[in-house]
């Protein structure tokens, strides 16, 4: 093998290694991006569940207060039926 053939072989081996390294780095970055996307999706799901729980609590409070108003109206109507 001559010097130029040796250099060509080294360059070709070097290019193959670089290509393999780029492939590995690309796969690593893709995996990292997927992990970040998964974490974001889980966080969004947790926030949605918290919001639904908050809405349920608010609805319970509204229902309670509505019932209280109804009871107060009944009491008022029973106390002074001639003023209405």
Provide a brief overview of the structure.
The protein has one domain (3-83). It contains one helix and no strands. It has one helix at residues 3-79.
Features:
single chain; 84 residues; mainly alpha; 1 helix
Task: Give an overview in words.
This protein has 84 residues and is mainly alpha-helical. The protein has one domain (3-83). The chain contains one helix and no strands. It has one helix at 3-79. The relative contact order is 0.04. The mean pLDDT is 86.
The major beta sheet can be summarized as:
none
Low-confidence stretches: none
Number of beta strands: 0
Radius of gyration: 36 Å
- How much beta, percentage-wise? under 5%
Instruction: Estimate nothing, just give the exact number of structural domains.
Output: 1
Structural class: mainly alpha
List the helices and strands and how they pair.
Blueprint: H1 3-79
